[in-house]
TrEMBL record:
Organism: Kutzneria buriramensis
Alphabetical keyword list: Monooxygenase, Oxidoreductase
InterPro entries assigned to the protein according to its UniProt record, in alphabetical order: FAD-bd, FAD-dep_Monooxygenase_BioMet, FAD/NAD-bd_sf
Record PANTHER family: MONOOXYGENASE (PTHR13789), PUTATIVE (AFU_ORTHOLOGUE AFUA_6G14510)-RELATED (PTHR13789:SF309)
Protein name: 2-polyprenyl-6-methoxyphenol hydroxylase-like FAD-dependent oxidoreductase
Presence of keyword Oxidoreductase: yes
Annotated ranges, domain FAD-binding: 2-338
Length: 371
């Protein structure tokens, strides 16, 4: 029986497992972390196209039980003037609404759904090498499959075996935080974008009153050592002077935040090879974009559906992988380019979680249609 091995048990890897399992292919997921710890961290915005992709995998209802919906966006300038209020996403179907959701919550929901369907997810398996169809892990164990899918994220080990490429720094530090102590102006289901004088900030308040926020700041790239050594107090003290003169809730939100983290906005260059031998890259491992478009998770879910359709219709063959890449590369690389432009604009409203450029994505994802 054909078998697919997926390296990475996060959002991309687990979504792909659901897709190829639905296509009737035996699949096993191998995750380096001993549990779901890799998902601990920031929240994300899952867009309507991501929810549409999950619907093709019969997983949209499971994901809709976590997080909370977003149906509109308000943009406010640094003077406090409201610049725009607009609907976002599919307004008619609650299962297609944008969702603000913790990365850990989303990962847990997808893994629970995969396990419910009998998909094996093996934790504590850190990849060290691939020899044709055999993978080797740090503990000395091996596994063999017909296709090895690298869904292991921005710093992909599998990509290092196909096309060693370091992520590019996109020019911004991205701060994330959560607080129940701030009481910013908000409406249920609305994401707020603040065009600060030196920052770009977004926040959404959950039904329980927790403010989830991010702040993008142009600055030098942080080293891994600086990120590891930094404390929430340190990052908060660095951020507050950048927002204190703006007539927005930014200073109030940041000052009230105890849980705060930072990362570098990074992406990958377009045109990277996605395949070599029996290996294939998918999600951020193949086409990471800076976070400005808010499309990372949704793009990975789209990848999963299209790969599932390709192997369903064409088997685990070069023809299937050609079809997959032909469909996916234009869309995801346009997203990389758009996100880079929006990141460079800094305060241009770039953080809006907007769908990627127009392609007939509904047709591309429709499970009933051939690939």
């Amino acid at each position: 029986m054909t078998r697919i091995l997926i390296i990475g048990g996060g959002i991309a890897g687990t979504s792909t497992a659901l897709a190829v399992h639905k296509a009737g292919v035996d699949v096993t997921v191998f995750e380096a972390h001993p549990d779901g710890a890799a998902d601990i961290g920031a929240f994300l915005t899952l867009a309507s196209n991501g929810m549409l992709a999950l619907a093709q995998l019969d997983a949209d209802e499971a994901v809709a039980r976590v997080g909370f919906p977003l149906t509109s966006m308000r943009v406010t300038g640094h003077t406090g003037d409201v610049l725009a209020v607009t609907p976002i996403g599919d307004q008619d179907d609650p299962l297609r609404h944008y969702r603000c959701i913790g990365r850990a919550e989303l990962g847990a929901a997808l893994r629970a759904e995969a396990k419910r369907r009998g998909i094996e997810i093996v934790h504590g398996k850190r990849l060290t090498g691939v020899d044709d169809g055999t993978v080797t892990f740090a503990d000395g164990s091996t596994a063999t499959g017909d296709l090895i899918v690298g869904a292991d994220g921005l710093n992909s080990t599998v990509r290092g075996l196909i096309a060693p490429t370091n992520p590019r720094y996109a020019g911004q530090r991205v701060f994330y935080g959560y607080t129940t102590d701030a009481k910013p102006d908000h409406e249920p289901g609305r994401i707020e974008m603040l065009r600060g004088s030196g920052t770009a900030i977004g926040y959404a308040v959950s039904p329980a009153g927790e403010t989830n926020w991010f702040c993008r700041v142009p600055d030098a790239e942080l080293t891994p050592e600086e990120i590891a050594a930094g404390t929430p107090e340190q990052w908060r003290d660095a951020l507050l002077p950048l927002v204190s003169t703006d007539a927005t809730p930014a200073a109030e939100i940041i000052a009230a935040t105890g849980r705060l983290m930072v990362t570098n906005a990074s992406d990958l260059p377009e045109g990277l090879p996605w395949r070599a031998g029996r290996m294939l890259l998918l999600g951020d491992a193949a086409h990471a974009a800076s976070p400005a478009t808010g499309q990372g998770a949704s793009m990975a879910m789209e990848d999963a559906v299209v790969l599932g359709k390709a192997v369903r219709d064409l088997g685990v063959t070069a023809e299937a992988l050609d079809a997959y890449e032909e469909l996916r590369r234009p869309r995801v690389e346009q997203n990389i380019a758009n996100s880079a432009r929006m990141t460079a604009a800094r305060t241009s409203g770039a953080a809006r979680p907007a769908p990627a450029p127009e392609i007939d994505i509904a047709a591309q994802l429709d499970w009933r249609r051939p690939v």
